[in-house]
Amino acid sequence: MLLDAASLYFRAYYGVPESVTAPDGTPVNAVRGFCDMVSRLLIERRPTRLVACLDLDWRPAFRVEALPSYKAHRVVGNDTGVAPVGVPEEVPDTLAPQVPVLLEVLAAVGIATAGAPGHEADDVIGTLAAAERTDPVLIVSGDRDLMQCVRDGPTPVRLIYVGRGLAKAETLGPAEVAEKYGVPVDRAGEAYAELAMLRGDPADGLPGVPGIGAKTAATLVGRFGSWAELRAAVTDRSDPRLAAPVRAKLVAAAPYLTVVEPVVRVVLDAPVHLDRDDAVPAAPADPERLDALAQRWGLGSPVHRLSAALAR
Asked: How many Å apart are CA 46 and CA 42, to the nearest integer?
C-alpha cells in the first residue's frame, strides 16, 4: 500500500476540527486524522507492506520549466499565474507545524516513508508501483492524476480514490477508469493521462486545449494508440481520425501540446529513497518514543488505535 501522504494529511486537516489540540493548545487535527485513516486502512485492507510517500518537491523544476503555470496559483503570495521554482506552497499556518510531528509518529510506529529529491509524491508512488513485481499494489490518494498508474499486470495496481473521503472511497482499476472517463480499457492509465493533457486541470495550472472538453478528449484518446500517434495526426491532414475543426484547435495549441507530456505523466524512474523496510510492523518500532509523542501532543487515542491496528 502506497499512501499519498500530503493528499491524506490535507484531507485530515480539513476533515477534523481544529479544536483538536495538544495539551499546550497546538492543533493536532491533521495528525489525529491521518493516524485514524491509516488505522482504518490497515484493518480494512490488511496490507503486508506500507509506504507513506512524501513530496520532497511539490513543484519540481522540470515541470515548471516545461510549463511555468504549473501549480503557480498555489505559491505563497502569488497572484500572477507564473512563479519561480523553490517558493513554498501556500499551506495553512496551523497545518505546516503538524507535518514534522506526523513524520515522528510514523518513524516511532515503524511505518516506512519514501521520497525522491526534485520529485513529487506522485512520482515516488509511480516509481514504486511500476517496479513492483511481487505483490498487488494499492495506492491511496485523493489525486486523480494517480489514475494513470492503474494496471492489471504484471502485478495489479489499483487506486483507492478518497476524493470524497475515506468513507466514500472508490477502488479503481483499468476497467473502472475506462468506464468512468470513456478511455480504452487496454491502456486506461496512459489514456487517462492523455485525456488530462487535452482537457487541462485548473487545480494544477494546466490550461488544456481551448475548446476541448472531457468528452471530446476521451473520444480523441480512444481513436489513437498513443500520445505520439495523436500528435502525429495533428500535422497529417490526411488522417481521417481528426475532423478539421478539432485539428485546428490542436494546431493552435501546438506550443502547449509540445511541452505538456512530462508535466502530466507520473515519473516511473525517480530516485526514490525509503527510510526503512516497508514491511508493516507487528508492533511499534519504538514504543517508548511513541508513548512520549502521544503524551506530548495529546495523541493517546489515535496512537492506541494505530498500534492496535498493527497487531491485527
From this structure: 5
